[in-house]
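Cross-posting from the chemistry board since nobody answered there.

I work mostly on the small-molecule side, so proteins are not my area. We synthesized NAP and want a rough idea of how it might sit in this target. Sequence and SMILES are below. Is it possible to get a predicted 3D structure of the two together?
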Amino acid sequence: MVSFTVYKGSKDGSIVKSSTSKSDLKGDQVLLRVTASGVCGTDEHYRRQDMVLGHEGCGVVEAVGPAVRHLKKGDRVGWGYEHDSCGTCDWCLSGRETFCPERAMYGFADLDQGSFATHAVWKETFLFPLPGELTDEEAAPLMCGGATVFNALHMYDIQPTSRVGVIGIGGLGHLAIQFAAKMGCDVVSFSGTDSKKEEAMKLGAKEFFATKGVKELNIGKKVDCLLVTTSAQPDWNLYLPLMAPDSVIFPLSVAGGDFKVPYMPLILSGIRIQGSIVAPRLIHRQMLEFAARNGIKPIMMKFPMNEAGITKAMKTLNDGEMRYRGVLVPEQKA
Ligand SMILES: NC(=O)c1ccc[n+]([C@@H]2O[C@H](COP(=O)([O-])OP(=O)(O)OC[C@H]3O[C@@H](n4cnc5c(N)ncnc54)[C@H](OP(=O)(O)O)[C@@H]3O)[C@@H](O)[C@H]2O)c1
Ligand SMILES: [Zn+2]
Ligand SMILES: [Zn+2]
């Protein structure tokens, strides 16, 4: 039996310290000591739920179950949004286990543990060894944010010749700019104000447009692909005129309410809207290799892994002050 500290959401939105106990490790279970956790916009959506928060985890293996085959004590690994899948359905067999009907995902399964914690127990098959080029803190934001934006670009075959728009320069957006730029794409970034312009250009954007209060954008050549990484849905009337014929929009934001979009421009220009979630494991692994090889790293602000640190990190995110991903680290390292 092992017990560890976890941090949960609650009805009034305050962060609650609690503990979780797990029986002795079975099968391919791995006990990890959490060394870093990203704070994703999606954690905010679950903040009022009675569940352990955090799904951008990195840690060190402390113990392994009897059927663990590859990992050993001391190995550095990360994990993300998905913790298990059936392994036998069409989706699992075709390497798209993120669509498995029996998928175990953050917010729906394993609510007693997450990456806002001192430890966690996960299946070996859903853990990712970390490349030596990335520290645990650098790798953590890649486990959801990085995987999500890389997946959209990679799974749906965006070409190096594509002109790629990225709306919202937050946790996801600042990684999307880097991934698309390193893939060779021509990156156009959109942000509320000019305050993130310099950083966006340093990260690889070729062009930058501030959008607050703007009724019309003139960006010259239209974009072939638009990654929407804002925390709320954008004004589609502003962005649809920027879409090239036969282009694709990835509305990655998780926002309440229906998805409402003017549809005549979609028909007239053959614009596709492509739903996309985090990456299945093969693409996640390729994302880590690509990031390591190309020097893609998050820009981060660190906070201690305790109630006050998590509360402060989430406030910083909500206030629009995060540059660009909050990372929680164990108290002694903070
Ligand atoms: N589909 C998926 O699988 C998936 C995975 C992870 C996250 N998500 C979702 O993706 C979104 C972004 O996550 P994140 O962690 O990158 O969040 P984030 O760090 O808060 O970034 C969101 C960005 O949106 C812009 N923004 C903030 N408030 C806004 C508002 N009221 N209206 C329009 N734009 C606003 C800001 O960019 P500027 O200052 O540049 O305008 C902000 O930096 C969230 O909704 C999250 O739940 C989806
Ligand atoms: Zn996330
Ligand atoms: Zn399956």
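Reply from a structural biologist on the board:
Welcome over. Reading the output above for you: DSSP finds ten helices and 17 strands in the chain. Residues 2-141+299-333 form a domain with the Quinone Oxidoreductase; Chain A, domain 1 fold (CATH 3.90.180.10). Happy to explain the token format if needed.
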